[in-house]
From TrEMBL, chains A, B:
Name recorded for this polypeptide: Lrp/AsnC family transcriptional regulator
Species whose genome carries this gene: Flavivirga amylovorans
Taxonomy of the source species: Bacteria, Pseudomonadati, Bacteroidota, Flavobacteriia, Flavobacteriales
CDD domains referenced in this protein's UniProt entry, alphabetically: HTH_ARSR
InterPro entries registered for this protein in UniProt: ArsR-like_HTH, AsnC-type_HTH_dom, Dimeric_a/b-barrel, Tscrpt_reg_AsnC-like, Tscrpt_reg_AsnC/Lrp_C, Tscrpt_reg_HTH_AsnC-type_CS, WH-like_DNA-bd_sf, WH_DNA-bd_sf
Gene3D superfamilies noted in UniProt: 3.30.70.920, Winged helix-like DNA-binding domain superfamily/Winged helix DNA-binding domain
Oxidoreductase found in the keyword field: no
Entries under Pfam families matching the protein: AsnC_trans_reg, HTH_24
Oxidoreductase is among the record's keywords: no
Length: 147, 147
DNA sequence: TATCTTGTGATTAATTTTGATAAAAATGCT
DNA sequence: AGCATTTTTATCAAAATTAATCACAAGATA
């Protein structure tokens, strides 16, 4: 598909605020609202748009800590972990990666005690390394059109 | 603020699909749409809701690679980097962390050449370590109410 | 020329917003 | 505790806005 200038303009609006109305987007990008609606639907169908998420502040809802945890899985333990990780409420992002470690996760935790018990759960799957997040430098930045 | 059962129900809807109408959310959680509207506005004002983002597929728009890059900043180079990183289109997430490395970033890249030139830019700020993302195991999972 | 795509404008249905009112919860006083 | 007052928050209804759908026109494609 051709993801043209107009679609990028629409995507820029939607990435910045997914709850904008089609009419408002249309006003901003200079096209009618049915056109916006149709283009959004098509981008959804094509998988360009994967979804619309609300960003909830972990701090405001009681998660005092954020951490990056990497895991070097034991022999035969990677696959079981890939299944198990989906059930952890604490894990907001998890990637399989190349290199020494197999997994990197972003997790939210209530407090030190919660962190301790969470890390304890990982022991059976491999060696984990925890790095506490001090601050968000860049958060959920939009994806830009490439030249 | 009391983030009660009803607000969590609303947040669950919004995290799953930020573009649901207030009326539809109201139907699902059993209140009128003005009630939903008012509660959402209050959660926005209080910073519980940080925003509404559209998730764009990096692959579908031409970014073939995703990577996790950590940076161990040179003496005096951390602060300049924290400013510079905001200007990088490739960086979709960036955290300052504890431990050996100071920074962990999630980046999207067009190809190997692009990766090479991006990593080259980092050399002046510190030692970087790059891990290619093989797959998303868990992506942007919603934040749950804690018991 | 014929066909396919995509935007516009119009119509109708649905939604949001606003203000008025009522119910519920919290607060204060005896 | 018991009761009245205040505050908060929900509902309802009307008006304004928006979304979905349609026919049709303008370009692009074959």
């Amino acid at each position: 598909m051709d993801i043209d200038k107009l679609n990028w303009k629409i995507l820029r609006c939607l990435q910045e605020n997914a709850r904008l109305s089609n009419a408002e987007i249309g006003r901003r990008v200079g096209v009618s609202s049915p056109a916006v609606s149709e283009r959004i639907k098509k981008m959804e169908d094509l998988g360009i748009i994967e979804g619309y998420k609300t960003i909830v502040s972990p701090l405001e809802v009681g998660y005092q800590l954020k951490a990056i945890i990497t895991l070097r899985a034991f022999m035969g333990k990677l696959k079981p972990f890939l299944e198990k990780v989906k059930t952890y409420d604490e894990v907001v992002n998890c990637y399989r990666i190349t290199g020494d470690e197999n997994i990197v996760m972003e997790v939210v935790l209530k407090n030190q005690k919660h962190m301790e018990s969470f890390i304890d759960q990982l022991i059976v799957y491999g060696e984990s390394k925890t790095q506490i997040v001090l601050s968000d430098v860049v958060k959920q930045k939009e994806i830009k059109s490439l030249k």
